[in-house]
Amino acid sequence: MSAPSSKRHDQRQRDRVIAVWLWHSFVRHRLWFLGLAVLLMVFEALMLGAFSYLIRPMFDDVFIAGDTAGVYLVALGMAAVFFGRGLARLGHKSVMAVLSNSATADLQCMLLAHLTRLDLGFFKHNAPGVLIERVRGDSAALARVFQGLITGFGRDGAAVVVLFGVALWTDWQWTLIAVIGIPLLLLPLLWLQRLIRRRSAESRIAAADSSNRLDEAFHGIATIQLTGTEERELARFRQIMRNYVRKIARAVIGHAAVPTVMDFGAAIGFALVLIYGGLQIIEGTRTVGQFMSFFTALGLLFDPMRRVSALMAEWQNVLASLERTYALLQVAPRVTNPPPPHAPVPARDQTDIVFDDVRFAYDDEPVLRGLSFRAEAGRTTAIVGPSGAGKSTVFALLTRLADVNDGQVLLGGHDIRRMDLAALRQCFAVVSQDTALFDESIRDNVTMGAETVTEDALRAALRAAHVDDFLPLLPDGLDTLAGPRGSSLSGGQRQRVAIARAILRNAPVLLLDEATSALDAKSEAFVQDALERLAEGRTTLVIAHRLSTVRSADKIVVMDRGQVVEQGSHDELLALGGAYARLYALQFGADDAGADSNSGQTGTVYGETRPS
What we know:
Blueprint: H1 3-27, H2 31-63, H3 68-115, H4 120-125, H5 128-137, H6 141-170, H7 172-178, H8 186-219, H9 221-227, H10 230-283, H11 288-329, E1 353-362, E2 365-375, E3 380-384, H12 391-398, E4 406-411, E5 414-415, H13 421-425, E6 428-431, H14 442-446, H15 455-464, H16 491-505, E7 509-513, H17 521-535, E8 539-543, E9 555-560, E10 563-568, H18 570-576, H19 579-588, E11 602-605, E12 608-611
Parallel strand pairs: 3-8, 3-9, 6-7, 7-8
Antiparallel strand pairs: 1-2, 1-4, 4-5, 9-10, 11-12
Helix pairs in contact: 1-11, 2-3, 2-6, 2-11, 3-6, 5-8, 6-7, 6-11, 7-10, 8-10, 8-11, 10-11, 15-16, 16-17, 18-19
């Protein structure tokens, strides 16, 4: 098999797979409603056939014969035809509107459910704007399956059959002459379909690029304005949109060319029938009524034929989007729930955390290189180190937002990959420096992830996190909307809401990633005190850059380039005079860091050579 033939064979195989998926996922369980819609479409087509058929008696038996009474009967018949056609059209359009939108909503929910199960590595390489376009834009093709393809093939296909039957009944010779040019159009139509498929796929990629650029611009609007780069960003977006317009125009032109090609065939057929039939009427072998009935049926026939041929092009356009959607659904989650029996979730006082020779990489980019440390249950362990050392990756692996490539992460002596995933994540309450708030009420943001919350428990969490300090300043108190990404609140307020959420969750393990970084000195002191009291009896891991926040930790783990370089208490690490002591000296001064004990030495502070 030649390379082009093999490629076309593979494409047909993929198309069949997508068609089977569409049938089982979105069409099969809607057959009753689809059947009703198709019956209404067929009825509409029958009304078209009745209209063209009534033309013959209207001319021959009424107008030419001068039958006055027949005028009323024909008029009544014509009115009934149009009335019935209008009701049928309203009925099937209403049914298909509900079906198409419900199917599209189901697909978007299916995509979101799938995407929320994928690990962080996937989102590292797929920007939010691109995914939004994949969920919203590409899935809209499913609506075109119902409203365009099924409606088109049902209504127009039935119309073609009915009107072709009327034409054949009127004069089979005229009918064959009328369609003589159609076979000549098959090769051009097949070529156009392949072109449309390719151009449509290119236009969907260009649409995703534009959505991603908008997403980045809106999220970074403050940076754009502060750096004065509005024109640069606009120029970039214009370039992307020029590419999109070029791609979508090519797809639309290819799509529009299909009915144009059909018009060429119709022009040949009409001309030949007009010559042949006109001569027969002049000779008296055919009547005007026969010709008008045939000509009406033929005129009505070529319009649905044109639309049916365009539907083949539309199917290629739809497949280009659905192929991308189906491919997205086939991305296998790398973090999955293990089969039972599951390892037990440890009790609150047994939540020791152990990283045992853990290695991890995003694709080919190593992040952790044999990381090993232990965080004892009920104690606070701080993790410090330079940016890129792998500190946040520790939290991602511990909560199974990603899985280790090698080694083990143990909780309570059990490998976390053998625990029920939902039960494992219930063990953690997380507050990160990038506070994740949603455009919902403060109450909803605080209670997020908590199963049952009493009003007393909620108020206690709000007091402990000092959220109640600013609640009276908000227009609706707890019911005030936080805004998109918490934009209605200040940075410190957002952080305190996230801390209240962690307090309310009451999980046995606290994960704090620069949890007080956005607070002023007064609020930080209050919240730090609240967190220290909350940490009592819990296993707490703290990621920190400001060493003042971890001085009282039971253990401090110093990381560099994905490995542990030192660990111990604050005093032990200062006495050691190593990496931690040098970092402390940089932040607070050499006297506090015990620099006298290291006088005259030169060391490496996270890759930089500095006097210690």
